[in-house]
Amino acid sequence: MNNTLSELLENSGIRIAMIGALSILALYLLAQTITLAADFGRSGVPATDTITVQGSGEVSIVPDVAKISFSVENVAATVAVAQAATTKQTDAALAAMKAAGIADKDIKTTSYSISPQYAYPTPCYGITCPVPVDGYTSGSPKITGYQVSQSVQVTVRELDGVGAVLESLGKLGVQNVYGPNFALDDSTAAYAAARADAIMKAKQQATVLAKQLGVRLGKVVNFSESSGGYPYPVMYDMGMGGASKVSAPNIPAGENTYNASVSITYEIR
Q1: In this structure, what DSSP letter does residue 101 have?
Q2: How many CA atoms lie within 13 A of 230 on its CB side?
Q3: Which of 35, 41, 147, 202 is 20 to 30 Å from 106 at the Cα level?
Q4: Nearest-CA neighbor of 225 among 249, 252, 201?
Q5: Does residue 43 sit in helix, strand or coil?
Q6: CA distance 225 to 84
Q7: What is each CA distance from 264 to 161, 188, 190, in whole angstroms?
Q8: Is the separation of the CB atoms in 72 and 186 below 8 Å?
């Protein structure tokens, strides 16, 4: 037996494999020891002595983009004629957007719809009723035409040009315009700053409360958050009065406020 073990140890390949296995075992035992040391004194039972505090934070930041939506709609006796009119007006609006410096990636169609338009007969409440014409009887609506609508959203990155974009849409007779909705192109950092402010205020509240109660704060056992602060778009009716009645509006961007609320539960001792 001893001779066999000696022979195995003399084999360099087997000796290296055994050393590697022992090293892995040693590292595993070290990791387990560190884990046990970290958990020493901690109970597996959820904390029952706790306090919960809330904090609200906010940050105000100047927006860097403006989103404007508009829709073009036309009604005609046939779908083809309504489509042609809507396409012509939409193409003119899209050309104006590109002329204003809006990149292709910042122009997108959000909806396209074709809807029949109906006329409803006057209800008959007496003994004498109107004589039906061409099958147009009471209770049977008649299709009188079709409405074709296309909605587009553009992102304006040069905020000084927002007024000019609205002016160009007005000159083209685009009546349904929504916006501008001023925002940050990436609001991640804004919400992170608002959350940090909320956490700081919650910690301050927890410290004051613990002092008043005569207890010490322990570890955090629960945390939740919510965020908000989306700006609301404004709707413009640009009218159909022609270019002479349309001028570039003054559109201040101001600041957007981003909010966050947190709830933190501490173990107390």
Answers
A1: T
A2: 5
A3: 147
A4: 201
A5: coil
A6: 50
A7: 44, 21, 21
A8: no
| pLDDT confidence of residue 121 | 72
Helix (H, G, I), strand (E, B) or coil at 191: helix
- pLDDT of 79-92, one tens digit each? 999 999 999 999 99
Token representation of residue 76: 């005609």
**Structure-token pair, residue 60:** 């105000």
What rounded mean pLDDT belongs to the chain? 82
Contact of 170 with 239, CB cutoff 8 Å: yes
Lowest mean pLDDT among 39-48, 63-72, 95-104, 151-160: 39-48
3-state secondary structure 103-146: CHHHEEEEEEEEEEEEECCCCCCCCCCCCCECCECCCCCEEEEE
d(CA 256, CA 217): 36
Helix (H) or strand (E) holding 250: none
- pTM for the whole structure: 0.63
Q: Count CB-CB contacts under 10 A for residue 165.
A: 25
> SS3 for 54?
strand
Residue type, 112: Y
Residue 237: is its pLDDT beyond 50? no
Per-residue burial over 123-159, b if 16 or more Cβ lie within 10 Å, else e, is eeeeeeeeeeeeeeeeeeeeeebbbbbbbbbbbbeeb
- The CA distances from residue 138 to 56, 135, 142, 146, in Å, are 60, 9, 10, 22
